[in-house]
UniProtKB/TrEMBL annotation:
The protein, known as: Putative thiol-disulfide oxidoreductase D
The family this protein is said to belong to: Belongs to the thioredoxin family. DsbA subfamily.
Organism: Dinoroseobacter shibae (strain DSM 16493 / NCIMB 14021 / DFL 12)
Signal sequence range: none
Top-level lineage group: Bacteria
Thioredoxin-like fold domain location: 53-218
Gene: dsbA1
Taxonomic path: Bacteria, Pseudomonadati, Pseudomonadota, Alphaproteobacteria, Rhodobacterales
SUPFAM superfamilies per record: Thioredoxin-like
Alphabetized Pfam families for the sequence: Thioredoxin_4
Length: 223
């Protein structure tokens, strides 16, 4: 199954910049919560030019795979633990695929996780992504904002960041708004309505196991 997107309740969380904005909101939605690609941010009014596209693989690879995923989506965690390692070994590292990862924000915890991953810079982003998916049930905890913030600080420390660095990233309200607006623009343009979703050389695909993924990629390589 995939996690559906139909409604986003991040307006207050991303608008309230300040020392504790990330611990002052209500609990995390359940797995069935969905979001509107227009959402609560007027994307056209937010400057997204500073948002970096996170990529792996050769820029001139014959296939481009764009994944849309949420750090709080269990199906995305399953994909990254069971399928992505083989995809990376057999197609990304061999120059056949350029992989682009785009974050989806079901809830503020997914947004916070994305901000922490980006806090480490491009060189540490995918390593932090691996930790977020491997430890998803641990860092999301019982849905307490304070507990989630503490857990994200712990992941940040493992990645070589100080608590102060992580807090500064989480407190960046302008960056949060830009990330949400950027997500909305991309998801609307690509017609994304569930996670994980994939855009492979311009065509949309839903969640797949490695065998099916490889069949799609091999078919494109044979063209």
């Amino acid at each position: 199954m995939a996690r559906k997107l139909t409604s986003l309740a991040l307006g207050v969380a991303i608008a309230a910049a300040g020392a504790y904005w990330y611990t002052s909101q209500s609990g995390v939605p359940t797995a069935g919560v969905t979001l509107n690609p227009v959402g609560s941010v007027e994307a056209q009014e937010v400057d997204t030019s500073g948002i970096v596209e996170m990529t792996l693989g050769a820029a001139d690879a014959p296939i481009t795979v764009v994944e849309y995923a949420s750090f709080t989506c269990p199906h995305c965690a399953t994909f990254h633990q069971n399928v992505f390692p083989e995809l990376k070994e057999n197609y990304i590292e061999t120059g056949k695929v350029q992989f682009i990862y785009r974050e989806v924000y079901f809830d503020r915890f997914g947004l916070w996780a994305g901000m922490v991953a980006r806090c480490g810079g491009e060189e540490r982003y995918f390593g932090i992504t691996d930790m977020l998916y491997e430890q998803q049930s641990e860092w999301t905890g019982n849905g307490s904002p304070a507990e989630v913030a503490d857990n994200l600080r712990r992941i940040g420390r493992v990645a070589g960041m100080s608590d102060e660095q992580v807090d500064a990233c989480l407190q960046d309200g302008e960056k949060a708004q830009a990330l949400v607006a950027w997500y909305q623009q991309n998801a609307e343009a690509d017609g994304i309505n569930s996670t994980p979703s994939f855009v492979i050389n311009g065509e949309n695909y839903s969640n797949m196991n490695f065998r099916d993924f490889a069949a799609v990629l091999d078919g494109l390589l044979e063209e």
